[in-house]
């Protein structure tokens, strides 16, 4: 997927003016955070479990090579294959080669963010295959040729009317006058169509929520059961996973699972949690004859030693999106690439470079809610600030902004000058704004005053008041 | 390609090792790290995984997520309970079930067509036997095998699961410990399914709907005597 992160400002402006999107975001708001809160209230140990989860991921990352090799050895021992892919292109090519080897035509897919990251559907279609997304939300956006707007609820930006419209446009074999006003009718229609896809697919592609080194198992959670049908019915299963998904043991996976669904949807556990180890065995009556795991790096090994290493703890629950005031205002598409919200604003520049994505770390109020709710205690605000510094240091951003920041840094770095400048500024603004108590327009600050008034300062700076008070106390 | 000759694998491992500030680990280092896998231990287990009345907790949690439950004295009560469950759900009297001697030896009603094998399109109800029930979230744990194909858990619209009450444990970790005891350390069935309620989706306007791709109904029959 071509990144549109470089036009974030324009994307965000368009999103704010997009009425159906705003209605969808209003519907979405509050839902997951309230459910998450309720789930956590039923689990007093939640914060302690976050510490345990963080420790597990830190331990896995501290010896990532050893755990990955152990995972590989176990997959091979179970009769599966592991493919190490350095970048998206290598992963795409490996998947295509495997599909050719399987003589595939139809390929079912269970929603995978790694699949989005490597743009596997486009590559498969270009190679002559028919990939079919089976998660209901992902199926809907595939019909509409859109990207997911949320990492766990991909079609959250759409209304049921838009979904019905897409179904009518694509399901041409069905009677045009059939009723499609209710979600249940749409689900029934999609279930029937996708059931045929499950039964005829030659290859099933899934992601993985975790990889377990102890057993060589891949872990996958869904609520619909689509991943299980995707992986059980075809002749070949391909799991695409990034390297940081590995955890040492089944017990470690259990701890992470206690955090994942609660943080994501507020469920205690997703409906289906599936641990898969290798292909169909001797006398098994079902399951894929061939089992392949793609281990994708795509920039992650580079992150491991640097200031963004902690981002590799992310378990893709989406809590930081659900609690972000910026995500809630503009939705996921404005972020311009695969991963939206705070986690995306850290991950995207790390995966595809800061050059075209330096708006993303600025798409944050740094309010800190993301870090507060992150089950893996990832210091997202610190990382966003680091990316802002990196972007400035590498000469990014528009000239006026850079000049403004440079001037600010010059003044802020000299306390006497800062006191003088702010003291003068506040006094002048206080005098000018005396009459109305606020400014409707202010030269040089039209970006602020276009949408709100600037309150006139009361005449003295905070520092002056502070000194006076402290002086009075002493 | 053998693992050793794969340049991508070598490059990825080298980058990881560079980032970790060390070269390839020594055998001693590797052994020490993998001790965690060789002798797995539980992390923090929340109090809800340690309740006294696990059966009541299991039932309450399973029903919270829209599963239905029934309690039976023992195996001999299963056929009648299954027949009744199918008829209450207005499903035809046909059943695809796991190949299990304890089920095969039961007296199934003549008007209930019972077959074993993997699930196929058109199967509307299935019957499986859980390896464990996990009380902390009302989860049933099923193991795939030649006699217990995983498709039984997903293709039909009604999934009936037999759960011996003595197989109900408190926490996930207890289920893993029992699995290791049953199959041996480090041995996994091809598929382990943890199932917590029937299939659902909320992908259209966050409207919760049951029966997305998997079963619309999950009915758990708890057996007092196994």
From TrEMBL, chain A:
InterPro entries: 4Fe4S_Fe-S-bd, 4Fe4S_Fe_S_CS, FTHF_cligase-like_sf, Helical_ferredxn, LUD_dom, LutB/LldF, LutB_C, NagB/RpiA_transferase-like. PROSITE patterns: 4FE4S_FER_1, 4FE4S_FER_2. One of its GO terms (molecular function) is 4 iron, 4 sulfur cluster binding. Keywords: 4Fe-4S, Electron transport, Iron, Iron-sulfur, Metal-binding, Repeat, Transport. The keyword Nucleus does not apply. The keyword Iron applies. It comes from the Bacteria. Residues 305-335 form the 4Fe-4S ferredoxin-type domain. One of its GO terms (biological process) is lactate metabolic process. This is Lactate utilization protein B. It comes from Candidatus Defluviicoccus seviourii. The gene is lutB.
From TrEMBL, chain B:
Residues 128-223 form the LUD domain. It holds the Pfam family LUD_dom. It comes from the Bacteria. Gene3D superfamilies: NagB/RpiA/CoA transferase-like. This is LUD domain-containing protein. It comes from Candidatus Defluviicoccus seviourii.
């Amino acid at each position: 997927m071509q990144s549109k992160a470089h036009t974030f400002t324009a994307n965000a402006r368009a999103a704010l003016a997009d009425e159906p999107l705003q209605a969808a975001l209003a519907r979405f708001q509050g839902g997951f955070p309230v459910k998450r809160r309720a789930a956590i209230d039923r689990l007093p140990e939640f914060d302690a479990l976050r510490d345990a989860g963080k420790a597990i991921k830190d331990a896995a990352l501290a010896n990532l090579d050893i755990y990955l090799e152990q995972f590989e050895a176990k997959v091979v021992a179970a009769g599966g294959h592991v493919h190490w892919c350095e970048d998206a292109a290598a992963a795409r090519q490996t998947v295509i080669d495997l599909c050719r080897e399987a003589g595939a035509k139809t390929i079912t897919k269970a929603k995978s963010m790694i699949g989005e990251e490597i743009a596997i559907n486009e590559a498969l279609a270009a190679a002559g295959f028919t990939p079919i997304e089976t998660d209901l939300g992902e199926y809907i956006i595939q019909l509409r040729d859109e990207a997911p707007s949320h990492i766990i609820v991909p079609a959250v930006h759409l209304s049921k009317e838009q979904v019905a419209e897409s179904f009518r446009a694509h399901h041409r074999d069905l009677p045009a006058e059939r009723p499609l006003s209710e979600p249940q009718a749409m689900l029934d229609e999609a279930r029937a169509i996708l059931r045929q896809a499950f039964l005829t697919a030659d290859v099933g592609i899934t992601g993985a929520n975790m990889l377990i080194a102890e057993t060589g198992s891949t872990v996958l959670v869904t609520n619909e059961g689509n991943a299980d049908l995707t992986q059980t019915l075809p002749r070949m299963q391909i799991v695409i996973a990034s390297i940081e998904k590995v955890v040492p043991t089944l017990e470690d996976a259990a701890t992470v699972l206690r955090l994942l669904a609660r943080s994501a949807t507020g469920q205690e556990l997703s409906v289906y949690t599936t641990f898969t180890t290798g292909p169909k065995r001797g006398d098994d009556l079902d399951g894929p004859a061939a089992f392949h795991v793609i281990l994708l790096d795509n920039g992650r090994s580079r992150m491991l030693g640097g200031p963004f290493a902690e981002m590799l703890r992310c378990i893709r629950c989406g809590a930081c999106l659900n609690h972000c005031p910026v995500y809630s205002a503009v939705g996921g598409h404005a972020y311009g690439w695969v991963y939206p919200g705070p986690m995306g604003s850290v991950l995207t520049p790390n995966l595809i470079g800061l050059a075209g994505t330096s708006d993303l770390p600025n798409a944050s109020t740094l309010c800190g809610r993301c870090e507060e709710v992150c089950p893996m205690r990832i210091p997202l605000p610190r990382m966003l600030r680091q990316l802002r510094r990196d972007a400035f240091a590498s000469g990014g951003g528009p000239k006026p902004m850079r000049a403004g920041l440079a001037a600010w840094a010059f003044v802020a770095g000299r306390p006497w000058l800062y006191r003088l400048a702010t003291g003068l500024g506040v006094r002048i603004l206080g005098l000018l704004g005396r009459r109305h108590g606020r400014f409707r327009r202010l030269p040089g600050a039209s970006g602020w005053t276009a949408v709100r008034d600037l309150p006139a300062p009361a005449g003295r700076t905070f520092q002056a008041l502070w000194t006076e008070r402290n002086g009075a106390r002493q | 390609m053998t693992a050793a000759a794969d340049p991508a694998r070598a490059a990825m491992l080298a980058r990881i090792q560079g980032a970790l500030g060390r070269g390839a680990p020594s055998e001693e280092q590797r052994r020490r790290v993998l001790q965690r896998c060789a002798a797995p231990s539980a992390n923090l287990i929340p109090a809800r995984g340690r309740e006294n009345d696990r059966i009541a907790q299991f039932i309450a949690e399973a029903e919270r997520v829209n599963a239905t439950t029934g309690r039976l004295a023992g195996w001999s009560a299963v056929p009648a309970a299954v027949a009744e469950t199918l008829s209450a759900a207005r499903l035809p009297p046909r059943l695809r079930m796991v190949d299990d001697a304890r089920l095969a030896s039961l007296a199934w009603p003549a008007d209930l067509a019972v077959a074993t094998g993997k699930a196929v399109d058109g199967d509307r109800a299935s019957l499986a036997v859980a390896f464990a029930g996990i009380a902390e979230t009302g989860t049933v744990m099923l193991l795939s095998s030649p006699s217990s194909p995983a498709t039984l858990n997903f293709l039909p619209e009604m999934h009936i699961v037999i759960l011996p009450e003595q197989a109900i444990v408190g926490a996930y970790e207890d289920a893993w410990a029992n699995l290791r005891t049953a199959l041996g350390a480090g041995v996994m069935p091809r598929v382990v399914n943890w199932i917590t309620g029937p299939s659902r989706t909320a992908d259209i306007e966050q409207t919760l709907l049951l029966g997305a791709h998997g079963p619309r109904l999950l009915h758990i029959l708890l057996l007092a005597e196994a």
